[in-house]
Structures
1.
Amino acid sequence: MSAAGRQNLDAMLDVLVYENVLVAWRRAPLGGYLIVSHEGEEIRMTAQQADMWSRGAFAVYLALVDARRISPRIPGDGARH
């Protein structure tokens, strides 16, 4: 994964933590990622797996916002809904 791709993945994971979709994440050895779920499960993934997983989680998050089932915490975003 390129440096730009890794920065984008890191930013997406940061937003998922901020929006309370994840508890935490961190980079793991050998370019992998460790994601912590609300159940306390620590999920180890390669960078490619983490990228795919975070895109799916982000898509579900956005679908729930669009359906007005949840409200985003990102400042200014709630004004559109």
Note: The helical segments are 3-18, 47-66.
2.
Amino acid sequence: MYSARDQVENEEWLAEMEVAADRLDLSADARSYAVDMFLSSVPESDRSKGPAMAASLYAGALVASEGRSQTEVAEAAGVSRLSIQQRWKDVLESAGLQPPSW
């Protein structure tokens, strides 16, 4: 779980997430899941926050049944596809969800 302080401290990243979510045309549910997953496991390093934000968007879209490709999310968020590929399962697991086995 996260606190209001986490939200304030990561306001810049949440704004970037919103822009990427707009580019992906994600629903409010997918955005909400993504924000919750991101804020629940925000990395300490600013360098890691962009990829974590993108992985959270990808995972949020999956949870909301609005699947987007890793490439689409990477382009919308300005990160590499590999950075999403390496993180999205951990994002889901940290939220208490089991990643799909496909």
Note: The two ends are 28 Å apart (CA to CA).
3.
Amino acid sequence: MPPRRRVPVAAGREALAVCRSAGFSADRDVTATAVRYTLEELAAVAPGRTVEVRVPPHGAAQCVEGPVHRRGTPPNVIETDGATWLALVTGELSWQEAVDSGRVRASGQRAHLQGLLPLVPLDSGVAQID
């Protein structure tokens, strides 16, 4: 069962567009909406509970099929800030560049999102969320 959508798609796409046009420096509320929307998209594109993606203070999502984590700190955690996350999901920053520069912290053998980013929305044939 896919996760329940909390951010309406139209609102999420609008917030993402605003953030992108502001160089990923939009105000906190708009950034939070864009981050939550894209985390929901990630969970829909890669359902599962093997990897936890954290973008404090805006949100977190579990994704990627594999061994299920149920209690305590997940073994595969990815953490980054809102601006880096949005740059990753839009393709403005590559996964490898983000990891190499320290903008993404990833711990665990399966803690990577290569091949999943930039995000492709499920409800359109568009190559990237626009």
Note: Confidence is low (pLDDT under 50) at residues 122-130.
4.
Amino acid sequence: MFIISLTYIKPLEEVDVLLEEHIAYLKEQYALGNFVASGRKVPRTGGVILARSVSREEIETIITLDPFYRHHVAEYEITEFSPTMTVEELEFLRE
């Protein structure tokens, strides 16, 4: 499993121009089964994506499809982790 942390490096006005494209990208990744949760950071300085376990190389490739990445409005930090304990509803995430 991966935590992908996005940090905006451009003003929110530039981020907002790409927001519809970014949401379409997220929906596509959900449909493909790659993402399981996502949302904005509070305060709105970026976002967080929870991604299923695939290889790190695949995650790095998936990120390059994000309009925020392609237009250089966000930086990405990838953290891999192995969930060993979850609430019952998220047992499917345990490895």
Note: The chain has a mean pLDDT of 94.
